[in-house]
Specification:
The chain is built from 12 helices and 2 strands; from the N terminus they run H-H-E-E-H-H-H-H-H-H-H-H-H-H. The chain is an all-alpha fold. The chain has one domain. Strands 1-2 form a two-stranded antiparallel sheet. Helix 1 packs parallel to helix 6, helix 6 crosses helix 7 and helix 7 runs parallel beside helix 12.
Length: 260
């Protein structure tokens, strides 16, 4: 390795990653039981009450149609909460200053925290998908694309959660964006219905909701049909990822809420 080129500190990355994952495994029962119960309740309410009135949507049973929306809802909220708490807690107890003074680069810090948060949310997404398969018969048209959208979305919103964890001044603020912004946008983003059912004006308004593209691309991987086009969904996901990466880079470059 040439002089002046920093060496990748994989030991530090693995140490942070394992620490974050250990916290997840200590509460694995609570972490995995919650999505199972939530998914079951959604199928009881939406699958039974509404599904009986809407036999099919998008060429598939209504129960199968809402599965991608359920998985995406779980993925978005879990990615945000895991990543935001993961970086906020070291700020809260003051250990973040030891981390910043250690021979660990900003890239390695982000890689470890975001990687752990994404791993947790993907695991919960898989559990949600497995639970859904108990209620409906699932068929995935494009499994590789499904995994691709799953990983990209988890990474993007884990980065977003990392930003929230640095921005937040208290534990209450950690829940503001997931609860008051992301969850409503998911419900209004076609998670449980096709946006083609909306009147033209509201359909146009809905297209400004970025969650629409995430849900629709993920659903296309399942049923092979999309309301906005898989190309737009992939472009929107990558754009959100790049924006989050840019904000994280700015945070470390300026020391925003890390050096005070």
């Amino acid at each position: 390795m040439s002089a002046g080129v920093p060496r990748f500190n994989r030991h530090a990355v693995l140490a942070i990653y394992r620490f974050e994952m250990a916290r997840f495994f200590r509460t694995v029962g609570q972490s995995l039981v919650a999505p199972v119960i939530t998914t079951s309740l959604y199928f009881i309410v939406f699958g039974s009450a509404i599904g009986s009135r809407i036999p099919q949507m998008g060429g598939v049973d209504y129960g199968a149609y809402i599965v991608p929306g359920l998985v995406m809802l779980s993925l978005l909220t879990q990615s945000l909460s895991n990543a935001s708490f993961g970086i906020y807690f070291p700020r809260f107890v003051g250990t973040v200053y030891e981390l910043l003074s250690a021979p660990v680069s900003p890239f390695e810090i982000v890689l470890a925290y975001v990687g752990a948060a994404a791993s947790k949310s993907i695991a919960i997404g898989v559990v949600t998908l497995a639970t859904a398969s108990l209620f409906v018969r699932l068929h995935i048209e494009h499994p590789v694309w499904m995994l691709g959208f799953l990983v990209l979305t988890a990474l993007t919103f884990s980065l977003f959660g990392f930003i929230i964890g640095i921005w937040a001044k208290g534990f209450e603020q950690l829940q503001i964006i997931p609860t008051l912004v992301i969850t409503p946008l998911t419900f209004l983003g076609g998670a449980f219905y096709s946006i083609e059912m909306l009147p033209p004006f509201w359909r146009t308004v809905t297209l400004f909701n970025p969650v629409v593209y995430l849900v629709d691309g993920f659903r296309w991987a399942f049923i092979g049909r999309a309301d906005v086009g898989v190309g737009w969904s992939l472009a929107a996901t990558l754009l959100l990822l790049c924006v989050c990466m840019g904000i994280v880079s700015w945070i470390f470059r300026t020391g925003y809420r890390l050096k005070n």
